[in-house]
Amino acid sequence: MTTTNQKGLIINKNWCKGCGICVEFCPTNVLEMKDGKANIKDIDSCIMCKQCELRCPDYAIYLGGKKDGK
Amino acid sequence: MTTTNQKGLIINKNWCKGCGICVEFCPTNVLEMKDGKANIKDIDSCIMCKQCELRCPDYAIYLGGKKDGK
Amino acid sequence: MSNQYEMRLSGSGGQGLILGGIILAESALNDGKNAVQSQSYGPEARGGASKAEVIISDNNINYPKVRDCDMLLSLTQIACDKYIDSLKKDGVLIIDNSVAAPERDDIKIYSLPIIEIATEKIGKPMVANIVALAVINQITKITSNESLEKAVLKRVPRGTEEININALKEGYKLAEVNE
Amino acid sequence: MSNQYEMRLSGSGGQGLILGGIILAESALNDGKNAVQSQSYGPEARGGASKAEVIISDNNINYPKVRDCDMLLSLTQIACDKYIDSLKKDGVLIIDNSVAAPERDDIKIYSLPIIEIATEKIGKPMVANIVALAVINQITKITSNESLEKAVLKRVPRGTEEININALKEGYKLAEVNE
Amino acid sequence: MASALVENHFRSNKLPHIWCPGCGHGIIMRSIVEAIDELGYNKDDVCVVSGIGCSSRAPGYMDYNTLHTLHGRALAYATGVKMANPKLKVIVITGDGDCAAIGGNHLIHAARRNIDITTVVFNNNIYGMTGGQYSPTTPTGEKGTTAPFGNIDKNFDLCNLAKAAGATYVARATAYHANMITKLVKAGMENKGFSFVEAVSVCPTYYGRKNKKGDAVQMMRYLKDSSVNVKAAKKLPKEKLEGKFFIGEFHKVEEPEYTEQYQKIIDSFQKER
Amino acid sequence: MASALVENHFRSNKLPHIWCPGCGHGIIMRSIVEAIDELGYNKDDVCVVSGIGCSSRAPGYMDYNTLHTLHGRALAYATGVKMANPKLKVIVITGDGDCAAIGGNHLIHAARRNIDITTVVFNNNIYGMTGGQYSPTTPTGEKGTTAPFGNIDKNFDLCNLAKAAGATYVARATAYHANMITKLVKAGMENKGFSFVEAVSVCPTYYGRKNKKGDAVQMMRYLKDSSVNVKAAKKLPKEKLEGKFFIGEFHKVEEPEYTEQYQKIIDSFQKER
Amino acid sequence: MENKNIKLMQGNEACVEGALTAGMRFFAGYPITPSTEIAEISSLRLPKVGGKFLQMEDEIAGIAATIGASLTGLKSMTATSGPGFSLKQENIGYASIAEIPCVIVNVQRGGPSTGLPTSPAQGDIMQAKWGTHGDHPVIALSPSSVRETFDLTIKAFNYAEKYRMPVMLLTDEVIGHMREKIEIPTADEIEIIDRVKPESGLDKYNPYEVNEGELVPKMASYGEGYRFHVTGLVHDETGFPSNDSNVAGNLLDRLMKKIDNNIEDISLYEEYRIDDAETIIIAYGSTARSAKSAVDMAREEGLKVGLFRPMTIWPFLDKQITDVAKKADNIIVAEMNLGQYVNEVERVGNKYANISKCCKANGELITPDEILAKIKEV
Amino acid sequence: MENKNIKLMQGNEACVEGALTAGMRFFAGYPITPSTEIAEISSLRLPKVGGKFLQMEDEIAGIAATIGASLTGLKSMTATSGPGFSLKQENIGYASIAEIPCVIVNVQRGGPSTGLPTSPAQGDIMQAKWGTHGDHPVIALSPSSVRETFDLTIKAFNYAEKYRMPVMLLTDEVIGHMREKIEIPTADEIEIIDRVKPESGLDKYNPYEVNEGELVPKMASYGEGYRFHVTGLVHDETGFPSNDSNVAGNLLDRLMKKIDNNIEDISLYEEYRIDDAETIIIAYGSTARSAKSAVDMAREEGLKVGLFRPMTIWPFLDKQITDVAKKADNIIVAEMNLGQYVNEVERVGNKYANISKCCKANGELITPDEILAKIKEV
Ligand SMILES: Cc1ncc(C[n+]2csc(CCOP(=O)(O)OP(=O)(O)O)c2C)c(N)n1
Ligand SMILES: Cc1ncc(C[n+]2csc(CCOP(=O)(O)OP(=O)(O)O)c2C)c(N)n1
Ligand code: SF4
Ligand code: SF4
Ligand code: SF4
Ligand code: SF4
Ligand code: SF4
Ligand code: SF4
Ligand SMILES: [Mg+2]
Ligand SMILES: [Mg+2]
Q: pLDDT tens digits, residue range G210-229?
């Protein structure tokens, strides 16, 4: 359910309710909706700006996978 | 209990509670306190300005004796 | 209940009769007796009329209200008119001499210049209530004079002790003379 | 009470199952029967899961709640898992084919592509509820087809009549084929 | 045995009223009645609604349709009255406690709706009826029987509050300025919408005594000396304004009135038929 | 499986929360928590109090001392909490209905007292929890389930109201401006007195649907496009401000704080002994 | 649904339809689950008949506006649930002493406090009688079906107008939210009662004077030319306050007698299979539906069981329930609370019958099986 | 007054003194006659002992702040009269379900509504039990003297803390406003009970968990390091809301059992000349004083009359009053209302004794003569 990657961008699909807010406001178009949940489409473009984390109403997407060493 | 006079200034002593407001704010010093009630001391000075009537909290002093023909 | 003495102090608001009732009750406590004090509230209390009630007894006091009283003090005519019927046969009526004595011959009436004494002898009309207390005590002997003095001193504002003691004294004198 | 037929329509919020329940109940009324419809409220209704209950009877319906049901419709896995135990022995289970059939051999299971039909044949996933109503009616014969059609037409928004009639037709077809 | 105004507009068999000697409430009540008289309203069309408090006893003396409700609730009752019969000229008489303590919510909501009610607050900065507890308008530092060490609450500026809440007419005068109250209440009644008139009153019995403000006369004098008309204020130097409060009209705007807006909805269906 | 902030400050076993997909409340709740985190408060010293509503469910998820009270009463409870232990950092989370409808009186009085509580209103312009009735902040003309023909009420400007009532810190941001909420809440918490932060939220389920505002994304976009920072506003031409609302800090003053003033009374007796 | 008067309707909707039929032209309230639909439907329907709907700032304002509107001549209603019902209590007392007709609906939900907002309960039965301070007359009705919600709402308005008092409709989440078949009666099947108004052109109108042969004082509306006074203080027949103990005593006495002297008119109930019953269940509202099922089930097993179903909860049906107690060996009171109405049943009945209760307050409707089990137990 | 502990004191003052003795450190309220002195004296006394007094914007805010302060560790009280008591009802339910100790004083005055604000009554007896929506546990005490006001206020705090619930003190205008002799007991004569707190340093604190042998859950204060959650919704032992019917059922059950299982601890009453009594008067509060006089008067006339005086009004003294009913031929319930407590007496007693009432609700205290007349009548 969790996606980890070099940028440490994580999506908790159990918590994601599929509102699409993160997708809409990602400045570099990293994200997409897939099966009603947020999904990482293009991690390389991620500039780790945290906009998605800030605005996810469900705390389902966040940067921090790396920081925590996970 | 009622005083009538040529200016039509009337004091209803049954209603007067003796607060002294009319006496204080009469511009021409027509009134006085007597036995705890307002009293006409000098009707001649009355300029019929109605200040007493306006400010009597108990509607015990008023001009109008003449108007009503009483 | 037979040794209960029931008193009603009546007059107009501002005459300090409620304080008077409290002092009387505390005086009784000083004597080791029981006392209940109550007073009128509400529009009745607002409109100028004022009433304090005191019951003093050696025993427990159950029913706490005064209905027919043994002693009635009235400092104003309105108060006297209103409460005179509640005074028991053989009861004591104490009125200020500005009040017209009622037509009842089954009671003892004391008409005394209470307010005048306070105003003229003490120079403070406010202490009429204390003068009245002394008068009541002198006539009814309901509490001891020492207890009353103690009670008065406890309740009056600091700095007014002397005036009030004088008021008591004048009250006793007044009642003695007229006894 | 024996001729009472109790149904539970379950799925997720937004699938229009409450409207479905209402239509089913009105269809029964059209047939001259009695019906009671109720639904889940509160956090339960908020959280995505949704449930409508319908009881249909020739007689009066007293106790208005469905406990163990004769027919269960489940359009989602969660709903099926939650309510499967409440389906009576010999009861009818109708599930969308996206839902895994439960392991019970004491019931009749109909697994049909209800959502798919609505999406692909009608082009409106929202009409899955209407497709499901036709399926239910075809399988259980609980109300007459004319009554159901009338009930559907009464409740759907103006301008969508044709789509909904088509949905009914597709539903009947689907159920017939799989009967 | 009273003036023509009093005979005409009061239930004079109920007079004298229960208020204490020198209580400012009587002056304000008269000024309101004068306003109604000058406006020439039919008495049958006037409805005065109040809550509970010394001030709220006013309607009992006034010869209109009168409604003495519960503490704080006058505006909610009045809203029902006005909606039920928008032709009625509805006045709410309330105290600072009634209006701004327990009734504060109804005040801001009636203001927000801009419903055509004129509210006159008899603000004596104290709970008079219950014997002198501090109120939401008791100035900081002053005493009440529940503020024996001085009130630490900040006091409301009721006019400011009413304005922020949405009132379309806001003004203040004092019991000393009896004619001005009449003028402001008239303007308030003529405003199609929620009008708020603060009438600063005096309670010599409790507020005066507790705070050593002297007798009724001295308190009236204070009202005279400490108030400045907003219009005049602009021309005055700052020093002259120190310790003073403003009276006069503070706010006046035109906005849709509630019962009229509702009537439009009703009418839209009338047409449909 | 959540960010460090969420793990630290939320009761993550209670997540995901009950709010609908795209509900703005979740964003605002996170921004508040971020503020607390940045301020470095000890979690044991933070107390979050709420009323009843979707928004008022927030405290249940937050790992502090939390109190979920009655509809409209959060500020009254919070006042008791703060007075009882002035060391606590007290935050009130409330909805537009909770705070401004049934709770309006407690709001203006808490503001008046300038008690050190930071109130954050999750303003979605609707009663979410009960299914979409219009609220005192629903814009005139918009629909709710109890305003089927469009709301004829005028809506409150809550910031204006709080200011007029006496709040010493007043500000507004939106769920789109998540970082700004954090900033304002921090400033509010640091203000010794009553701080009021309006956080404009979105309710796609009811407000959005009823008023055809599109989905959560569109509603968030609206917040972004229609808000103007007060600071920037001054430099903008009037046309650019049409149909816009302001965000940012509106009011900030220093005034005596309630619990401190009360402590002074207590201290005066301590000295006496 | 050949007959156009047959509909599928929700209980809360039936309440509004009944109210409109009774002549409701004013509603003021505040949303609260599970009563909210009553406000919502009122907001939709009232302006279409020239009536007024107001969403107020809270429940207190809701009932206050309702009373104000009633005084101004409109038949008025407010609706709420538990927490809101608690908030309205002070004003219920006002309407009682000032004798203002109005209808207060309480769609009961799980308490105490916020409790279980979306679950049914019958926990406010005693509150309906005793919730406000001081003695006062009370009428409260409780329907068991959607149709009865319609009927009893009309009754509630009728009683309110006839006896000049607030009347409560105590329904519950089950009845309020369920949809069932309802046949709307035709106009001539329905009795509508309006308040008695003073003849116009009266010289002197005493708003609280009751003349020989009159039930209640005649009621003028504000704005009709009678400039009368209304207060929540104890008042004499002129409407003005009085502290006189005789006035106070007489007023309260008169208020209570409105009920006591007309108890038959207000007594609504159903008896079901009661004639030979050895065990009689007493149940009201939604619980009575379960009880009816239970009676049928018991009868099928040969048990002599019946149901007494009060629709009038207050005033308490003293006479009828005493009779029931005399007739039966056992009485079982079934209610969705921890035992409220049963106290009253005990009061009148425990001389005559063995009284027990079948109570549940966990947010679930009592089932027929639970009642049946209790029947077998006693 | 040689003994410095003997004083003349007003009932309302004794209430504050008792509260301070019990450890009250927070009071929030709103003025209302005839309870206002309690607020006034609290405002004067509390800061001197480091406590807090708050005059809130209304009665609702008063009790809400009281509950908030109690949760934060202070023993808290609010006081009011009729109209305010009605307004506080919703919050009383909150304190009940969330189990927050607090004391609510109601100095009863004439109702309903604004009624007779300065006159005594005992019209809120049933309201004290049933005023808020939903089932909930209730303790209410009623003193008959100034000294007893002091004592029962302490008891009220003790019960509140011990059983974690709101406790009501139902006094009346007569007791609240009269001054009489009171001997203040010394510290060692007084039992003070404090809430049980969790041991500090707990890893996990479940705010609503009751362990074997415990009466109520241990109560932490906000700010002490337990970051617990409190709600008025039905909740499980962790304090978080739940819709589970078992959780709901168990919670309500536990709340009610706090009373039911400890009824003896809460039963306070006085029996006076009851042993050989053929007629027993039941009276409480100020009316009990008249009743005692009446008993003495009756005894003087040779009538066998006694008095049973409940000081605990709620929970109802089932056992004791059943015993009284078994002992006496006649029971007369005297109360300053139109008949409230008498209903409960009838419920338990009418199998055994002839029960009648001596009621008055006109703003005047019932007199000994009126009770005596009633004694002779039965
Ligand atoms: C619900 C309720 N709470 C409290 C009271 C007691 N009470 C009566 S009047 C009043 C305050 C009145 O103050 P204000 O409104 O300023 O009027 P004023 O007497 O000063 O003119 C209070 C607290 C009440 N009657 N009802
Ligand atoms: C006394 C009372 N009245 C009404 C309600 C019903 N109620 C619960 S939440 C709510 C409105 C919530 O709106 P808001 O505060 O804006 O919060 P939101 O759900 O929109 O976040 C209402 C009316 C209640 N619980 N208690
Ligand atoms: S961190 Fe920024 S760039 Fe990366 S996915 Fe999130 S919003 Fe897009
Ligand atoms: S914002 Fe959060 S909940 Fe919404 S789609 Fe993105 S991850 Fe999912
Ligand atoms: S009318 Fe004017 S001048 Fe005459 S007495 Fe009155 S105040 Fe004085
Ligand atoms: S103002 Fe009126 S009440 Fe006062 S002294 Fe003059 S006449 Fe008397
Ligand atoms: S108490 Fe104060 S406000 Fe009330 S009547 Fe007396 S002076 Fe006026
Ligand atoms: S109803 Fe609205 S406010 Fe409530 S959770 Fe859903 S979106 Fe959010
Ligand atoms: Mg005032
Ligand atoms: Mg909202």
A: 999 999 999 999 999 999 99
